[in-house]
UniProtKB/TrEMBL annotation:
Residues 1-22 form the signal peptide. It comes from Gimibacter soli. Residues 255-671 form the TonB-dependent receptor-like beta-barrel domain. It is found in: Cell outer membrane. Residues 43-146 form the TonB-dependent receptor plug domain. This is TonB-dependent receptor. Pfam families: Plug, TonB_dep_Rec_b-barrel. Belongs to the TonB-dependent receptor family. InterPro entries: Beta-barrel_TonB, Beta-barrel_TonB_sf, Plug_dom, Plug_dom_sf, TonB-dep_rcpt-like. GO terms for molecular function: siderophore uptake transmembrane transporter activity.
């Protein structure tokens, strides 16, 4: 798909529709998001913003059972889902997004497990707020954007609310090993000054099957959703002593674990034969996610004329991976080379605090200021479970970042915004020993510890021009800040006399995001378009080694993209729409300053178009959605493992009917039973045992009720 002057096209489109805007000034309900630290209307944010509502989540849960699938369906710029436990190869605008639960970071930047999309059950989520593009307003990690899972809260009516959802999913042909069952129940109530919501959910998944009826191979190493179980315990307690104050405790305990009943029979790429699952437990324990997130929030709307918000949080994150006799694990002092089995487990403990104070009409009318400070302490290590060796040494990261942000309406409809954030970080690693296999002669190296520190001033600036009630244009510059995958760097040292203080690859990753866009509403039509350019002088690119493990390469990168959304309410019942995402990435592979190669599929998503038609009338609701992934040529890509990606189309269907006792829904994923190899399976890996097909036709019948 050609990518020609999207900025010019966007501006021309805006100019063409501008004269029509004055003809219709129908009121449009203002939508607010909290992912910006303080609740802010979408129209005031100089970036593309996507909000996935409760209704959207419920529909997509009935079609697909993984969060990344419906993010890819509803959020332009998010890469195709791998349909696996691991999000390796999934990206947002070609970079890593920062996942949050009620503002609490879920990412593990020191040793990226790529599991942050699976730390909460979708049944607990009320809405998903997505801010596109690099920014630092939420701190470390958002070089691709922010994905904030906003959890459910108790009803304010005072009545006891009890509800639940149950569903069963079957593969086409209703194969006995292909069933999936889900159940979630909750209870909540506001009693005087107190409120609570408690929820518990369970999911049991069988095998996945492709469009030919073949079982899909299980990724036993990185982790899989197929042949797995998960459970989520969630509670939210609130106390409001008066109309200005609120104290809230949130606890979410989530576990996703493979059952370990199946191994994978490698496919044959040359013949187009995908990997399949075969009965028989692989050696070792199945891959697991075990995550507990706790936050304590306090807010007071009457502090020095503004609102004070304080959040304290803890997270205990454990991600285990399947094992093998990988070359990286071999040590002749323990067992003959080629026979030593081991498997790794990533452990990360985070604690942090986020303080924000905001006030409107500071100094002069119309000036909105907010500021505060963030503190993060992250302790991470990755151990090998069978031999009790540390693959990644214990690494401690401390970050203190004060910030200030301001917005001012210069003239009617023209708002300027800008801010500063000072990142002050330190990494601490004691002396440690590498694995023996890091060197050709199995010599264990001692790496000198160190405490490298980093500081940088991160800036952002934006302008929003509300031409009239229907048409808004914006432009922004923002910077994102994160750490590279420190663990991959430290575990890969193979040079004697190395020191942590001397490793350039540990330098932070800073991404600059320039964006220009427009939002337009006219009568029944709503449209958004955005062009962005993201640059990094020392970006991160992942390259697979002989074991399939990714190593970090630091290189200059540039990513350009176009995103667009168009929706139309044809009647009160019928709505049509779609979104488009096109992105191109370039990288400097030899360090001469010239961008000489394209980014490969492991580091950037596919171009994609999604269309839908939805119908809601009375008790009936229905939606059909079509997704098209465009072909892509990787001939000029750095370390490309495939010359091209062959795109594919899928169609999904959702329908529901409201009964007196609840709502019954039917979802059909891959309605046409299309046979295809996933984006990552085709172009993101060169291993035959990861040549995975996508899911064929599945049927989900769900029932939910509340009383």
């Amino acid at each position: 798909m050609p990518f020609r002057s999207p900025l010019i096209l966007s501006l021309l489109a805006s100019a063409c529709i501008a004269p029509m805007a004055a003809a219709d000034t129908a009121d449009v309900e203002e939508l607010y998001v909290s992912a910006t630290r303080t609740p802010k209307p979408v129209s005031a944010i100089p970036n593309m913003v996507s909000v996935i509502s409760t209704e959207d989540i419920q529909e997509q849960m009935t079609v697909a059972t993984d969060i990344s699938s419906f993010l890819g369906q509803l959020v332009p710029g998010f890469s195709p889902s791998r349909q696996k436990m691991s999000g390796v190869g999934e990206s947002f605008r070609g970079r890593k997004p920062l996942y949050l639960i009620d503002g609490v970071p879920q990412s593990t930047p020191l040793r990226d497990s790529s599991r942050e999309g699976y730390t909460i059950d979708p049944a607990v989520i009320e809405r998903i707020e997505v801010i596109h593009g690099a920014n630092a307003i939420q701190g470390l990690g958002a070089t691709g954007g922010i994905i904030n899972f906003v959890t459910k809260k108790a009803d304010t009516s005072g009545d006891l609310q009890i509800g639940g959802r149950a569903s069963i999913t079957a593969a086409d042909g209703f194969k006995d090993k292909g069933f999936e069952e889900q159940i979630a129940v909750y209870a909540g109530q506001k009693v005087g000054k107190f409120d609570y919501l408690a929820s518990v959910s369970f999911v049991s998944r069988g095998l996945f099957y492709d469009g030919e009826g073949r079982s899909i191979g299980v990724d036993a190493t990185q982790g899989d959703l197929s042949d797995s179980d998960s459970r989520d315990f969630f509670v939210k307690l609130g106390f409001e002593p008066d109309e200005n104050q609120r104290l809230q405790l949130m606890v979410n305990d989530y576990e996703l674990a493979g059952d370990g009943d199946y191994s994978t029979l490698a496919g044959t790429r040359a013949d187009g034969i995908p990997a399949t699952a075969v009965k028989g437990a692989p050696e070792g324990e199945p891959a697991t996610n075990d995550v507990t997130t706790v936050s304590l929030d306090y807010s007071n709307k009457a502090v020095a004329g503004g609102t004070l918000s304080l959040q304290l949080y803890l997270q205990d994150f454990r991600a285990s991976f399947g094992g093998g006799t990988f070359a990286s694990f071999q040590d002749p002092a323990i067992a003959p080379v080629g026979t030593l089995f081991d498997q790794s487990e990533n452990n990360s403990e985070k604690k942090g605090a986020r303080l924000t104070w905001d006030r409107v009409d500071v100094i002069v009318p119309g000036l909105h200021l907010y500021g505060g400070a963030d503190y993060l302490e992250d302790t991470t290590y990755q151990r090998l479970r069978e031999t009790d060796r540390n693959w990644v040494p214990e690494t401690k990261f401390e970050n203190i970042a004060p910030f200030v942000q301001g917005e001012y309406e210069l003239v009617d409809g023209l708002t300027l915004s800008g801010g500063l954030r000072y990142e002050n970080a330190k990494l601490r690693v004691d002396d440690y020993q590498t694995l023996a296999a890091n060197t050709a002669d199995f010599t264990i190296l001692t790496v000198g510890g160190g405490s490298p520190s980093f500081s940088d001033l991160i800036i952002n600036a934006g302008i929003v021009n509300k031409i009239n009630d229907n048409w808004t244009v914006y432009a922004s510059y923002s910077e994102g800040f994160t750490m590279p995958d420190v663990g991959r760097v430290l575990r890969g040292i193979n040079v004697a006399n190395s020191s942590v203080d001397d490793l350039f690859d540990l330098e932070p990753v800073k991404a600059d995001n320039i964006e220009i866009g427009t939002t337009f509403t006219y009568g029944v039509f709503h449209a958004q378009a955005s062009y962005y350019e993201s640059r990094s002088d020392a970006g991160v690119r992942y390259v697979a080694d002989s074991d399939g493990f990714l190593r970090v390469t630091r290189e200059k990168t540039r990513i350009r993209g176009l995103e667009a959304i168009l929706e139309a309410s044809i009647t009160d019942e019928l709505r049509l729409g779609g979104n488009l995402a096109v992105q191109r990435g370039r990288v400097d592979t030899n360090g001469d300053g010239d961008l000489d190669a394209d980014l490969d599929a492991a580091n950037i998503g596919a171009d994609r178009a999604n269309l839908f038609a939805s119908y809601r009338s009375g008790d009936i609701s229905a939606r059909v959605q079509w997704s098209h992934l465009f072909d892509r040529d990787f001939t000029n890509a750095a370390d490309a493992i495939a010359a091209e990606f062959k795109g594919y189309d899928t169609v999904d269907l959702f329908a529901s009917y409201k009964l007196e006792v609840g709502t019954i829904s039917l979802g059909i994923q891959n309605l046409m039973d299309k046979t295809y190899i996933t984006y990552y399976g085709q172009a993101g890996s060169n291993r035959d045992d990861r040549y995975f097909a996508g899911r064929g036709r599945t049927f989900t019948l769900a029932f939910q009720t509340a009383f």
